[in-house]
Each structure stands twice: as C-alpha cells, then as structure tokens.
Design a protein that fits this description.
189 residues, alpha+beta, Aminopeptidase, 8-stranded mixed β-sheet, 4 helices
Length: 189
C-alpha cells in the first residue's frame, strides 16, 4: 500500500499561512467528499469526458475506495482539511496483450488548480506504476486543456496521437490527445 506524503500547500487567500494537503491512497471515508468534488468538476463540462455524475457515494466507496492500492489499480486522493481536493485513478488494462499498460484519469478541484495538486497526484501514480511493474502509463486529454498538457509534459508524457471527434459532448465533438509515458527502457521499434 502507498504511504501518506505531505505534498504541498495552497496559498492562503487571506494572506494567512498556506493550507497543507496530503496525497495518499483513498479510504472509504473519502467517498462523500470525493463525490462533491467530482460533481463540481463534471458540472464545468470542460475537462472530463462525462457530463453526468450519476453514481452514489456508496458506489465509489465500494468500487474504488475500499481496495485503493492493489497491483491492478490505485485510487489516489489529495486531501486538505478533510476535503478531497483532487483524485487520480490509475488502472491496469485487462487484456493480456495490453496488461503492461495502465490508464490514468485525474480531476482537481477548481480552487486548487495551479497549486501542485496535479503534480503530487501524478508523482504518486508513477510510484504506483513502478512498484507494480507497469511498463507504460497512458491517458487522453482535450487539446485546449493547456495546464494538463503542461503537467503531463513535465512528467515526460509524449503525445502519441489524436482521436478526432472522440468525445461527443453537449458543446459538440471534442478531439482527444493520446499521451503515454514509458516507465521502462525499451528498444526502439
């Protein structure tokens, strides 16, 4: 299982001391706060594929937060003052021919973006991948999400292609940029 780490702090809005946050494997007690954060991110209709958040706290508690650090997947949260301010899920592909790959999905609360939460979550996901001998991490991102593209580039993710019109949202079709990060040295094809 992963360890809790002090990951960073958000500047105080009133000039006070920064609010600390920690990054750790999710626990069942995080599910309620996670659902609040997730619904707010989904309501923005901008950064994640879905435009609905229909699942209950119970669903997330059972599906993602009960066994949150295994060789198949990790559900990682960033928490400040008991509030989930970011979440990253990384899960290994199921097919035997792609089992060496794990896919990432991440969301950060709007008021915490740009304060190191995404970096702390990504660092923990990479640590999980190395611990369980994942060879490659993969993700997709909308091409206008410049902050996310910069974050992924900072960690060494490379653009591998573009899925044209892959998401059909209420605002229309959206392309997705596919990115990957090899965690092993591999011979050139």
């Amino acid at each position: 299982m992963g360890t809790s780490t002090e990951a960073g702090a958000r500047p105080g809005d009133d000039g006070s001391a920064p609010a600390p946050f920690e990054v750790r494997p999710a626990a069942p007690g995080d599910a309620g706060s996670f659902v609040e954060m997730w619904k707010a991110v989904v309501a923005e209709r901008k950064f994640v594929r879905t435009e609905r958040a229909p699942h209950s706290v119970r669903y997330y508690r059972r599906r993602y937060f009960r066994r949150s650090w295994t060789d198949d997947q990790a559900s990682i949260v960033a928490v400040s003052g008991g509030r989930v301010i970011g979440h990253l899920n990384v899960s290994r592909e199921e097919s035997p021919v792609t089992r060496h790959v794990a896919s990432i999905g991440m969301a950060v609360a709007k008021d915490w973006r740009g304060h190191g939460v995404g970096s702390a979550l990504m660092a923990e996901a990479i640590r999980w991948g190395r611990q369980f001998r994942v060879e490659k991490l993969a993700l997709s991102v909308y091409p206008d999400n410049e902050a996310a593209l910069a974050l992924y580039g900072k960690f060494g993710f490379q653009e591998e292609g573009r899925l044209t019109g892959h998401s059909k949202k209420s605002i229309g079709y959206r392309d997705e940029v596919v990115m990957g990060l090899w965690l092993i040295d591999r011979a050139a094809p």
